[in-house]
Amino acid sequence: MQGLSEQERYKPYNSRTIRDTPYWQKLTPALQEAMNVVARVMPFRTNEYVLGHLIDWDNIPNDPIFRLTFPHKDMLLEEEYASLKQLIDSDDAVAIKRRIEAIWLRMNPHPAGQLTHNAAILDGKVLPGLQHKYRETVLFFPGAGQTCHAYCTFCFRWAQFIGEEELKFNARESQELVNYLRVHTEVTDVLITGGDPMIMNTRSLAGYIEPLLALPHLKSIRIGTKSVAYWPQRFVSDKDAPQLLELFERIVAAGKHLSIMGHYNHPVEIRQAVARQAIERIRSTGATLRIQAPVIRHINEDPADWAALWTEGVRLGAVPYYLFVERDTGPSHYFAMPLARAFEIFQAAYRSVSGLARTVRGPSMSTFYGKVLINGIEVVAGEKVFVLQFLQARDPQWVLRTFYARFDPHATWFDQLRPAFGEASFFFQLPPANAPELIPVLLETA
Q1: Mean of the pLDDT values across residues 87-95?
Q2: In a domain, 18, yes or no
Q3: In terms of Cα–Cα distance, which of 369, 359, 363, 374 is closest to 326?
Q4: Using CA atoms, how far apart are residues 202 and 369, in angstroms rounded to an integer?
Q5: Which residues contact 186 (CB under 8 A, 6 or more apart)?
Q6: Helix (H) or strand (E) holding 349
Q7: SS3 category, 76
Q8: Greater confidence, 87 or 442?
Q9: What is the pLDDT at residue 144?
């Protein structure tokens, strides 16, 4: 794999250009129709590596990577699909756009208040592309990194990719980040995310990162990326891969902890020779690679797949980090699963791995209030409940606090849960006396 042919150099395909490849002929007429309809609503992008090395074309449409990257009919509600197809057949451009926009709004484009309630404000001005979600952590969305080597069909940031500017959040310059961090010395961690920052060339990425290295209170830099799975050549054979690894070395030499937050959804993504070589090269710089992904219906429901991913990751030197719950956005009706099932999958996988892989936490929900862990399903005081715990929270006093929700076998997201034991509300839905700056926000969403 190291000696890639010229045809395997990175080249993206969208819903139009995929028709010019041999893979289009592998799709049945029904799958081709679904591509034509659903890709009008949900973004589609892939590349030769995903097509030629990760998808088992003898197993479509059930192959997990195929479902992970190609649109399918059930990603839309039945009525949405039928009405949109009818409009496409009639070639009514205005009506098509209006119908698509209505579907976007129904799909909750910005869950958990990520666009409105995490805003970073400096001198009375909201800084675009920055989110100060927790006291010690700032998220940064560089404008040049708001696309990916290939799109995941379940992506909770799908609104970044559909071309509607008012639904995007991205930073146009790095200086605003530096200025913000100089004022907010409580921030120890910056997460550079997207999209995928690794879509940028090394020079652009360095332009964002290097100014951060002089900030003494900043201890860790994280880079969220799917490239380790969808285009590991970024670290191996891309033209500026050596410069990228040198950048990682400079970050570490500056005394910062560098963590590559690798998104792996299935063990097939870590089994390719070039993917393993990418891990080796990342680790050789002194950076850490962590494994995280949501558990998704139709894609990674088998606990054995999670156990295989974590075990192989540990063998290669990566750290299992998070198993997330699929967020309530996009085609969540298709991908989401009951929280009880998500816990069963995690528990079965966790039981079957050694202690070295048990660094993983899950199932975790990234809610408006913070990261909520499903820590168990128990009978307490005669009532069956979800045992929940904050791993991270808007109010630091909530962290590691355990609380309980009534067991609901159908609930797929935190907002569907109700307090146990007859309580009217969860403790954090009341204004916290020790955090007055949160009161307006919490009252607004309670």
Answers
A1: 95
A2: yes
A3: 363
A4: 35
A5: 135, 136, 217
A6: helix 339-351
A7: coil
A8: 87
A9: 87
The separation between CA 356 and the C-alpha centre of its own chain, rounded to angstroms, equals 24
Q: What is the pLDDT of residue 431?
A: 59
**Residue 6: strand, helix, or coil:** helix
Q: Is pLDDT larger for residue 316 or for residue 170?
A: 316
Tell me if 181 sits within 8 A of 138, measured CB to CB. Answer: yes
Mean pLDDT rounded to a whole number for the chain: 90
Query: E-strand spans in 153-198?
Result: 189-192
Give the three-class secondary structure for 240: coil
Three-state secondary-structure class, residue 148: coil
Tell me which residue range forms the domain holding 67: 6-106
Asked, for residue 33, whether it belongs to a domain, the answer is yes
Question: Collapsing DSSP states into helix, strand and coil, what is residue 401?
Answer: coil
Instruction: Report the predicted TM-score, pTM, of the whole model to 2 decimal places.
Output: 0.90
Instruction: Name the least confident of 125-129, 221-225, 323-327, 433-437.
Output: 433-437
Give the Cβ contact number of residue 368 at 10 Å: 17
Reference 191, options 316, 439, 10, 366; nearest CA is 366
Could you tell me which residues are beta bridge partners of residue 207?
A: none
Residue 45 lies in a domain: yes
Q: Assess whether the previous peptide bond of 363 is cis (omega < 30° from 0).
A: yes
Residue where the block lists tokens 């991205």 = 170
Task: Tell whether 387 is covered by a domain.
Answer: no
Cβ proximity of 297 and 334 under 8 Å: yes
Domain count, the chain: 1
Counting Cα atoms < 13 Å in the Cβ hemisphere of 42 gives 31
Long-range contacts of 123-127 (CB under 8 A, 24+ apart): 127/171, 127/176, 127/177, 127/180
* Mean pLDDT calculated for residue range 338-359: 98
Phi-psi category of residue 121: left, alpha or beta, with phi > 0 → left and psi -120 to 50 → alpha: beta
Residue tagged 């079957």 (tokens): 352
Among 205, 177, 154, residue whose Cα is nearest residue 42 = 154
In the sheet that holds 361-366, the strands lie side by side as: 119-122, 125-134, 137-140, 189-192, 220-225, 257-263, 288-295, 319-325, 361-366, 370-380, 383-393, 402-406
- For residues 181 and 212, is the Cβ–Cβ distance under 8 A? yes
Within 8 A by CB and 6+ apart from 243, the residues are 202, 203
Q: Which of 253, 329, 260 is CA-nearest to residue 294?
A: 329
pLDDT at 119: 84
pLDDT digits (tens, 9 = 90+) for 19-69: 999 999 999 999 999 999 999 999 999 999 999 999 999 999 999 999 999
